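tool=predict chain=A
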Amino acid sequence: MRSLNLWPTPNPRILPCPSISPSHHSLSQHPLKCAVLGAGFAGLSVVWHLLKHSPKELNMRIDIYDEVGIGGGASGVSGGLLHPYSPKVKLLWEGAQCWKESIKLLRVAEEASLSYSNDCKIGESAEDMKAFVAQKRGILRPASDIKNMTKLIDNVKTCLPSCRVETLNNKEAQILVPDLCLPFTTAFYMPEARSINSQNYLQALFQGCENLVKESSTLDSGQKQLTLHKRSVDRLSEFEGEYDAVIVCLGAKANMLPEICGRLPLRTCRGVIAHLELPDDRREAYPEGGPSILSDAWIAVQGPRSLDVGSTWEWKSTNSSPNVSTDEASKALQELLPKASAIYPGIKDWVFTGARAGLRAMPPLTSLGSLPLLGCINDFMGRNHSSKYWLFGGLGSRGLLYHGWLGSLMAHAVLSCNEEVIPSELTSWKNIKP
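tool=predict ok
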C-alpha cells in the first residue's frame, strides 16, 4: 500500500473532496463531517482510525448511526475467536497485517475498559478488566480430515511467529482439555489466539474512540466531536449535503438500502449461537485457561462454567433480529450439539441457557479467499450529489480479523479522498455482477 497523502494529486477517477482541501479553507476553519452507518466491527474501526489519523489541527465531526446501538448487529453476537488462519491452518490473505492491526485495536479496547474500573467490584484488577474484553487462552483445531493431514502439517511450517501453530498428538491435546476426543489423533494449537467477548469489546472500543475525542480537547488542536444516534437508516439520500463523507458499514443491512440494493455481490447468512452453562452440582468444569475449540461446530470458552457453541448457517435469510425463537433454538441445538460433543463429549452435561443470532454479509469467493468489499460508491448515487459515499462491507465470518487493518485503509481513503490507497484486491468486487 502506498503511503497516505492527505492532499493527493487530483485523479480523474476520484472525485475531489473540497471539505479538506487547503485551497478552500484552512483545516481549523472548515470541519470535516463524516456519517458512519453501523456500529459494529467495521464502523467502530473506521471511527477510531479517522480520529487517530486525522491531522491534529483538523476540526472533525463524526456521527454514528445504528438503530440498535453499539454491537447491536451480527458483530455483537460474533463467536469472537480471533486468529489469522484458514480451516487448513493456512495464513489468510494479508493475514500478518490483519492480525497485527486487530491486536492493536484489541489493546485499545483493553486499555479503555480500565476506565470502567470505578464501577468494578472490590478486588478486580486491571487484568480482570482486560479479561472483560478478551482472554488469551488459545484456540485448538482438531484435524477433521485424514486426506488433508499432510497439507495441514505443511501449513504449520509457515505460521506467524506472533501467532504460532503447534501440532499436538492426542496425549498433548488431552493435557489442555482432558475430555477431548480427537478423531484423527492430531490437533493444531494456536496459543496466542484470542477469545473475544464481542459485545464487551465493541463497547470498550467505542469508549476508546470517546477517549481520543477527550484527548483532543486537552491539546492545542482542532475540535473533534463524536455522537451516536440510535435510529434506523432507510436510504443514503437522507444524508446528502449534510456530510462530506458517508461511510456504509451496515453489514447485511447495506443491501437493503434502495440506492445499492441488489448491486453488491453479497450473500446473507443467519447464524445462531447457543449459550451453555455447567450446573452447580457438576464439579468437572472446563479447564481453567483451557483453549477454545474450532471444529465442525466451534466452542468459544467464556469461563470454566460458561460456553458458547456455534454456528448454524441459514443462507439467503433476511432475518436480522438477534432474538431466537424456541423452535429456532431447538433446531440449532439439534445441529450443533452432536458436532460439539464429537470433540468435547463432556458438553452433554452442560445446560442450554439461551441463544442469539446475527445476519452475516458473506462476500464472493476469489482466488485469494473471501475478501471484504471496500471502495467509493459515488457511481451508485447518480450525478447530483455533493457528499462522497464509501462502502466497507462483506466482513462475513472473519470480521474480527479484518476489521482493524481494513478500517485503517478506509479511514485513509476518506481523509485523502483517494480510493487508490485501498489495495485493488478489495475494490475488484466492482467488476463482479451480483
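The longest helix spans residues 198-217. The radius of gyration is 22 Å.
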